[in-house]
Amino acid sequence: MTEMYGGIEAGGTKFVCAVGSDPDNIFAEARFPTTTPSETLQAVFSFFRQQEREHGKIKAIGVACFGPLGPIPGSPAYGYITSTPKQGWANFNFLGSLRQEFELPFGFDTDVDGAVLGEWRWGAGKGLDSLVYLTIGTGIGGGAMANGQIIHGLLHTEMGHMRLPHDLQTDSFKGICPYHGDCWEGLACGPAMEKRWGQRAETLPVDHPAWVLEASYIAYALVNLVLVMSPQRIILGGGVMSQTQLFPMVRTKVLSLLNEYIKAPAILQHITEYIVPPDLGARAGVLGAIALAEQAYRA
Amino acid sequence: MTEMYGGIEAGGTKFVCAVGSDPDNIFAEARFPTTTPSETLQAVFSFFRQQEREHGKIKAIGVACFGPLGPIPGSPAYGYITSTPKQGWANFNFLGSLRQEFELPFGFDTDVDGAVLGEWRWGAGKGLDSLVYLTIGTGIGGGAMANGQIIHGLLHTEMGHMRLPHDLQTDSFKGICPYHGDCWEGLACGPAMEKRWGQRAETLPVDHPAWVLEASYIAYALVNLVLVMSPQRIILGGGVMSQTQLFPMVRTKVLSLLNEYIKAPAILQHITEYIVPPDLGARAGVLGAIALAEQAYRA
Question: Which of A154, A235, B130, B299 is the most exposed place for a label (fewest CB within 10 A)?
Answer without folding.
Answer: B299
